[in-house]
Design a protein that fits this description.
Main location: cytoplasm
GO biological process, one term: amino sugar biosynthetic process
GO molecular function: carbohydrate derivative binding; glutamine-fructose-6-phosphate transaminase (isomerizing) activity
CATH topology of the largest domain: Glutamine Phosphoribosylpyrophosphate, subunit 1, domain 1
CATH architecture of the largest domain: 4-Layer Sandwich
Number of helices: 18
Bound molecules: 6-O-phosphono-alpha-D-glucopyranose
EC number: 2.6.1.16
Shape: globular
CATH superfamily of the largest domain: Aminohydrolase, N-terminal nucleophile (Ntn) domain
Catalytic activity: D-fructose 6-phosphate + L-glutamine = D-glucosamine 6-phosphate + L-glutamate
Structural class: alpha/beta
Strand content: 15-25%
């Protein structure tokens, strides 16, 4: 998704901006650009379609030095990916602007601005903001006031970075619904949509809050709230290391991240279980009192994180906890009945997903008991706005298709199910058994990774296919959904997941020799049911690709492609069975030669709705 970097310093900021863009590449984008103000007060703009390297090449051939500048990676929303639509956008020679998010009322504003004589070069909503600020700048003679006036007229969710040739000592930023952070240096200041972009230049940050407009100079900054009042926002020191993520010996980040899972699952459990018990303090010091009052849980998330929530529903209901799970983009616009005692649980790798954040805010406004964020980024908006947090410790995930973030989310949700179950009669010895299964999890995931070569061989059968069907039952149904999502995200093969019991209600009509059918089969009470479902596929000439618990594999060997996943306790089976499906998607994508870590059209962090 779009990324912003901006800098005001006593040195040339172009290398800082370029490095910041490189560090935001993992979020997904289709073009990049930079604008700097040079010593003669000219705005120099360079833009390129494709990778940041294309912009870097452009700058190498024709440098654009300056002590004030803004830069951007664009993920197209309004208008195709092209140089014309890439940011920064300008209004004449006066104002340059970068923008994340969406301006909903851009059409009305555009008509008004055309009426005032402004000419538009792009198809974007962003250009409207550049002209609107330029228009107010003529009236106000002051960039900060011009931005404040313009922001007051915009609807939507956005963040902005703005510079003007009339004010070489000023960088103005605004946040309304899209994350933006100020980086504090010594005699220099920065803005970015993600702290990671700025870690080479500072560890000290101030996170802008909703409606804030910030006025940065080399020596300091001031922040004004939506009403225009001067406000102080807390300073934070980032604990993240500045090191750029490194693929090590792996060909892709995704494969590296898949193989990191035993270690990051162990990290996520570290200090949270002891002597066969989950330590409730891992949810925060106020957690025990909140958990005592929980009557039901609403889980809300997007994408892969939503699938983690779907698995958790099985686990919570097993413990007698009523639970609903929904994608955030639906939840935020429904009127969910938030009964007394509702704990709102959001799950997000990034903690910046616009719909998930909006759902959290609407649940809080509707009076939920409390909010818990299960998240991988400590400084994220979701964490800052939730009462309770349980951090996954997956480390930075670079591959757009989420892997280790998902399995660590499952571990965190398993802990939640246990602490809520404890309040509904989960006996100490039952808890100890669940905790023991969690303790075995890193080793079992390691064993599942041992299937890598066999899965790579299996992937050969998918190279020419256009569709695939994934099946699972019970808590393995969402695992099948996640397997299908992984395959479609990175190999571009159309893949759908069904609860195996639904097969005969439609998808069976699609089954023939050209439709590979993938199924995950743990050793649990539903095995016999799954056997019957798979017979239905075989009888129609469907080719079966099975991942089965070694305890039940003998039922399925004949006439199928079968890989055995060891014997796994049912309470953690969704975590272990996810691993071969991740590997399958990965190897099929490699076979097809796609951009595994940055698949087309997708973004890592979706900060627009
Ligand atoms: C994007 C990413 C997915 C991710 C989803 C939710 O679509 O490509 O990998 O699952 O957003 O992101 P979140 O950060 O909220 O987990």
């Amino acid at each position: 998704m779009c990324g912003i970097v901006g800098a005001i310093a006593e040195r040339n900021v172009t290398p800082i901006l370029l490095e910041g863009l490189r560090r935001l590449e993992y979020r997904g984008y289709d073009s990049a650009g930079v604008a700097t103000l040079d010593a003669e007060r000219h705005l120099n703009r360079k833009r390129a379609v494709g990778k940041v390297q294309a912009l870097a090449d452009l700058l190498e051939a024709d440098p654009a030095p300056g002590r004030l500048g803004i830069a951007h990676t664009r993920w197209a929303t309004h208008g195709v990916p092209s140089e014309r639509n890439a940011h920064p956008h300008v209004s004449g020679a006066d104002v340059a602007l970068v923008h994340n998010g969406i301006i909903e009322n851009y059409k009305e504003l555009k008509e008004e601005l055309i009426g005032l004589g402004y000419r538009f070069e792009s198809e974007t909503d962003t250009e409207v903001v550049a002209h609107l600020i330029a228009h107010h700048l003529v009236q106000e003679g002051d960039l900060l006031s011009a931005v404040q006036r313009a922001v007051a007229r915009l609807t939507g969710a956005f963040s902005l970075g703005v510079i003007s040739r009339h004010e070489p000592g000023r960088l103005v930023a605004a946040r309304v619904g899209s994350p933006l952070v100020i980086g504090i240096g010594i005699g220099e200041h920065f803005i970015a949509s993600d702290v990671f972009a700025l870690l080479p230049v500072t560890q000290n940050f101030v996170f802008l809050e909703e409606g804030d407009v910030a006025d940065l100079s080399r020596s300091g900054f001031t922040i004004y709230d939506r009403a225009g009042h001067l406000v102080e926002r807390p300073r934070a020191v980032s604990a993240q290391s500045a090191g750029v993520a490194d693929k090590g010996t792996y060909r892709h980040f995704m494969l590296k991240e898949i193989f990191e899972q035993p270690a990051v699952i162990a990290d996520t459990l570290e200090g949270r279980i002891s002597n066969g018990r989950v330590l409730e303090s891992c949810f925060g010091f106020e957690a025990p009192a909140v958990l005592d009052a929980v009557q039901q849980v609403h889980i809300v998330a997007c994408g892969t994180s939503f699938h983690a929530g779907m698995v958790a529903r099985y686990w919570l209901e097993e413990q007698g906890v009523p639970c609903s799970v929904e994608v955030a983009s639906e939840y935020r616009y429904r009127r969910p009945v938030i009964a007394p005692g509702t704990l709102f649980v959001s799950i997000s790798q990034s903690g910046e997903t616009a719909d998930t954040l909006a759902a959290l805010r609407s649940a809080k406004a509707a009076g939920c008991l409390s909010s818990l964020a299960i998240c991988n980024v400590p400084e994220s908006s979701l964490v800052r706005e939730s009462a309770l947090t349980l951090m996954t410790r997956a480390g930075r995930e670079i591959g757009v298709a989420s892997t280790k973030a998902f399995t660590t989310q499952l571990v965190a949700l398993r802990l939640l199910a246990i602490v809520l179950g404890r309040r509904r009669g989960l006996a100490a010895e039952q808890e100890a058994a669940l905790v023991a299964a969690l303790e075995h999890l890193p080793r079992q995931v390691e064993e599942a990774l041992g299937l890598n070569d066999a899965v790579e061989a299996m992937a050969q059968f998918f190279g020419e296919k256009e569709h695939a069907l994934f099946l699972g039952r019970g808590s393995e149904y969402p695992v099948a959904m996640e397997g299908a999502l992984k395959l479609k995200e990175i190999s571009y093969i159309h893949a759908e997941a069904y609860a195996a019991g639904e097969l005969k209600h439609g998808p069976l009509a699609l089954v023939d020799a050209n439709m590979p059918v993938v199924c995950v089969i743990p050793d649990n009470a539903l095995v016999e049911k799954v056997i019957s479902n798979l017979q239905e596929v075989r009888a129609r000439g469907g080719e079966l690709f099975l991942f089965a618990d070694s305890g039940v594999a003998s039922h399925f060997s004949e006439g199928t492609h079968l890989l055995q996943v060891g014997h796994v306790d049912d309470s953690i089976a969704p975590v272990v069975f996810t691993v071969p499906l991740q590997l399958l998607a990965y190897h099929v994508a490699v076979l097809k030669g796609t951009d595994v870590d940055q698949p087309r059209n997708l973004a890592k962090s979706v900060t627009v709705e």
